[in-house]
Specification:
334 residues, six-stranded parallel beta sheet, 11 helices, 12 strands
Length: 334
C-alpha cells in the first residue's frame, strides 16, 4: 500500500520572507507525516499532473480563494489552507461569493493564524465554523544573540504598501526619531501598489538618509537590530516570530493577538495604535541603551520559543490533519 504524502504548496503571492517564516510549519508537519514541498507556478500548468490528486494538501497563499480556484482540485480532496492575508473590505464580498455561489468543497479546511482572521471567517463571513481551525505558527530555531558592534541601529518594519494601511503613521515615527537623533535607519520591508507614493513621501520629508524601502529578503531581515510591528497587514505575526528567532526586540501597536507574543515592559513594548511619540521615544531609548535592547531580545526569544517551537505545536497540527481537532475558540481583545 502506497504511503500517503502530505503535499505542502507555496504560492507565488508570498514574499520571500513569508515563505521562509512558514518553513517551521512544514517542519512541524514533518514530525508526523511524510511531506513533499512544492512551489506552485501558474505557468507550469496543472499542479496535480503526476501527483495523487486525492491529497492531502496544505496550501500557503496570501489569497486563499484564488489558490483554491487555480488548483482546481477534485471534489472531496483533503485540503488545508493557511489563511495568511488579513481581513480587508474586498475580502468580505469575495468570501460571500464563495459562500453562496462556490461553497467550499467538503474536503477543504481553512486554518487561521490570527484572532482577526478567525473572527472574520467565523462571525462576519459566516462560513461553517466546523470548517475553520485556528493554529499558532511555530517559531524557527533560535539564533544566538550577539552584542551589536555598530553604533547605528537598523529598524525593520515589515508590511504591505496599500491604501488600507496608514503609511503616514509609519513615516511619522521615522521623522520623529530623525529629528531627535542620528544613527537610526528604518528599513521598510515589503511591496505594494503604493510603493512609489511611499518613496515620494520619503523624499518630500527629507528622510532619504534615514529610510530605505526594500523587498524584504530573509537575509536583510536577519540584519535588523529591532522591529516595529505596526498595523500594516501583518496579521499572521511572522515578523514577531522572526525577531524572536534573531533575539532582537519588538515594539508593537495594540493589534489583536499581540498580547499572545509580547508582555509589555518585560520582553518588548506595546503602545496604542497611531501614537507616534510613545513609539518614537521607545526607539530612541533602545538606540541609546544597547544592553537593554539586547536583554529585551533575549527575553523575547526565550519566552516565545518555549511556547511556539515545533515540538510544542505538533499535537495541535496532527489533530487538525487527522480530523480530531475540537472547535477553535479564539478571543479578540477589545
Amino acid at each position: 500500500m502506497t504511503e500517503k504524502v502530505l503535499t505542502c504548496v507555496f504560492f507565488p503571492d508570498l514574499h520571500s520572507w513569508e515563505r521562509e517564516g512558514l518553513l517551521p510549519v512544514v517542519q512541524t508537519l514533518e514530525r508526523s507525516n511524510r511531506v513533499e514541498v512544492v512551489d506552485y507556478d501558474p505557468e507550469d500548468g496543472n499542479l496535480l499532473k503526476g501527483m495523487n490528486a486525492r491529497g492531502p494538501f496544505w496550501i500557503f497563499a496570501n489569497r486563499w480563494e484564488r489558490a483554491l480556484s487555480s488548483l482546481q482540485l477534485p471534489v472531496g480532496t483533503k485540503v488545508f489552507v493557511s489563511v495568511l492575508a488579513p481581513p480587508r473590505p474586498a475580502a468580505f464580498f469575495t468570501t460571500l461569493f464563495w459562500k453562496r455561489f462556490r461553497p467550499l468543497s467538503p474536503g477543504v479546511r481553512l486554518v487561521t493564524h490570527s484572532p482577526l482572521s478567525f473572527r472574520f471567517l467565523c462571525e462576519i463571513s459566516g462560513l461553517p465554523p466546523e470548517r475553520i481551525h485556528h493554529l499558532s505558527l511555530p517559531m524557527a530555531l533560535p539564533m544566538k544573540a550577539k552584542m551589536p558592534l555598530k553604533k547605528d541601529m537598523s529598524v525593520g518594519v515589515v508590511g504591505r504598501f496599500t491604501g488600507e494601511n496608514n503609511l503616514h503613521f509609519l513615516l511619522s515615527i521615522a521623522h520623529y526619531v530623525a529629528n531627535k537623533r542620528g544613527g537610526v535607519h528604518f528599513h521598510l520591508l515589503g511591496a505594494g501598489p503604493l510603493q512609489n507614493h511611499l518613496e515620494e513621501m520619503v523624499r518630500e520629508l527629507g528622510l532619504q538618509a534615514h529610510v530605505s524601502i526594500d523587498e524584504g529578503t530573509p537575509s536583510l531581515l536577519s540584519q535588523m537590530d529591532m522591529f516595529l510591528y505596526l498595523p500594516l497587514q501583518n496579521s499572521h505575526f511572522l515578523p514577531v516570530l522572526k525577531a524572536a528567532s534573531l533575539s532582537v526586540p519588538v515594539l508593537a501597536c495594540e493589534i489583536p493577538g499581540i498580547e499572545n507574543f509580547i508582555q509589555d515592559g518585560r520582553d518588548g513594548f506595546v503602545v496604542p495604535i497611531h501614537e507616534t511619540k510613545p513609539l518614537g521615544e521607545l526607539v530612541l531609548r533602545l538606540a541609546e541603551d544597547v544592553t537593554f535592547r539586547t536583554s529585551l531580545g533575549q527575553r523575547l526569544q526565550s519566552s516565545l520559543y518555549c511556547r511556539y517551537q515545533p515540538e510544542q505545536l505538533q499535537e495541535d497540527y496532527s489533530a487538525v490533519l487527522g480530523g480530531k481537532a475540537q472547535a477553535s475558540i479564539v478571543s479578540v481583545a477589545a
